[in-house]
Amino acid sequence: MSKGLNNAWQPLSGLTIIDFSMLLPGPLTTLIFADLGANIIKVEPPGGDYARGMGSHLFHGVNRNKRSLVLDLKSTAATEVIARLAAHGDVVIEGFRPGVADRLHISAQALQSINPKLVYCSISGFGQSGPMKNHPGHDLAYLAMAGSLSQSGHWRESSRRSSTPVADMAGGTFAAIAILAALQENKNSEKAAVIDISLYESMLYMNAIRFGFEQDKPTRDHLYPTNDLFATSDGQKIALTIVEEKFWRNFVGVIKDSHPHFDTEQYATETGRRLDGDNLMRQLDEMFVSNTAEHWLTLFDAVDVPVALCITPGEALLTDHSRARALHVDTPDGPVLPFPSVVAGYSPAANQEPAPTAGQHNADILTELGFQADDIERLMRSGAILRG
Asked: How do 119-124 and 227-231 pair as beta strands?
């Protein structure tokens, strides 16, 4: 942070995003924009974002650097607030099932009739059209239906889901990219884009890259017996990530005296290692469990064999590498990692605000929209605006 605390890269400063979404995909999109300097107005329903009630870090992690307005979109009096939000914003994001935004008077047609330059992005499970458009679902369903769970991530295991909600996070990231593209297009168009992001199709896109669409049964063609997890004698786990041939040669070179069975014609080629992958993994198991994680890390790091210790997120910030990069920011509410980019001449965004309480910024946002004190009181009495 040699450039100082206030020298953060904020290229989206001045951009205002109205975020009607909840849970993870849409809020992740707007978190990315917030980290890059955008003004995010988080519009929550009475009772707040559903994620507030979840027993995890999710809500706090994905809603920092945002301001909260609690607005009952079903209230007649909410109409004038919606209109001013549309006029005030550059982008709108919503994450309802198709048809709900229309009923709540926040559809693309309704809002772009007020502000034709307003980029409008819908994020839903299965998209705004098609026979499954109103089908309920969450991350696991999108992974299953897109084919992700037909393939294993480990040589010896059947398919499992990741602890990270891949479809939700992929969809939220793709939405951010699409919105940035639409904002660029906006410079030369009279009316802004209406973007339809499907979490299911986000996974189809990723699977098409990894597997194509010819794969109709489980396979281990994408796996390597030398690219997996192995237990050590002290109860820890090592990720051995040998894929390229040069790393296998480095591995054999340092281990052949104590474990000569790896230095054989049987394992000399990738084809051979795959053909006898189950036996190779059994031998790797026996090797790794014979000593501590520290022993193996020290041994293999010295000869350029890719290994890593499996650790927790909290431990990850304490490594020498994380400390040297210094991308995270310590706050009174705990460490935060802003958008993970290193831009020459800039420091990480140090001024991190925690996720807001529901309705925390009601008065500030309404004033920003041009409402006077008596208007705000009237809206609160009507039930359109609710206190947190």
From this structure: unpaired
* Residue matched to tokens 């906006």: 186
The CA radius of gyration of the chain, in Å to the nearest whole number, is: 25
Indicate yes or no: pTM above 0.90: yes
The pair of three-digit structure tokens given for residue 244, joined into one six-digit string: 């390229």
- Reference 174, options 126, 136, 128, 121; nearest CA is 121
pLDDT at residue 388, rounded to an integer: 67
End-to-end, the C-alpha distance of the chain in Å comes to 36
| Confidence check: pLDDT of 104 > 80 | yes
5 pLDDT more than 60: no
Please enumerate in sequence order all residues whose Cβ is within 8 A of that of 279, keeping only pairs 6 or more positions apart, or say none.
none
Angstrom distance (rounded) from CA 335 to CA 326: 11
pLDDT greater than 80 at residue 199: yes
The continuous run of DSSP H or E covering 252 comes out as helix 245-255
Average pLDDT score over the chain: 94
User: Cα separation of 8 and 345, whole Å?
Assistant: 9
Residue 383 to residues 40, 94, 371: CA-CA distances in angstroms?
Answer: 23, 22, 16
Q: Is 19 a catalytic site residue? A: no
Query: 241 φ, ψ to 5°?
Result: -125, 55
Q: Specify the pLDDT at position 30.
A: 98
DSSP H or E run through 25 = helix 25-35
Give the active site residue among 49, 139, 168, 228: 168
Task: Name all domains of the chain by residue range, CATH numbers in brackets.
Answer: 16-215+332-382 (3.40.50.10540), 237-309 (no CATH)
* Residue that the structure tokens 């040297």 belong to: 324
Q: Is 157 exposed, middle or buried (0-12, 13-18, 19+ CB in 10 A)?
A: exposed
Question: Per-residue pLDDT tens for 27-40?
Answer: 999 999 999 999 99
| Confidence check: pLDDT of 2 > 50 | no
333 has pLDDT over 90:
no
Contacts of 75 (CB under 8 A, 6+ apart): 382, 383, 384
Look up residue 268 and give its DSSP letter. S
Per the listing, tokens 């889901």 go with 161
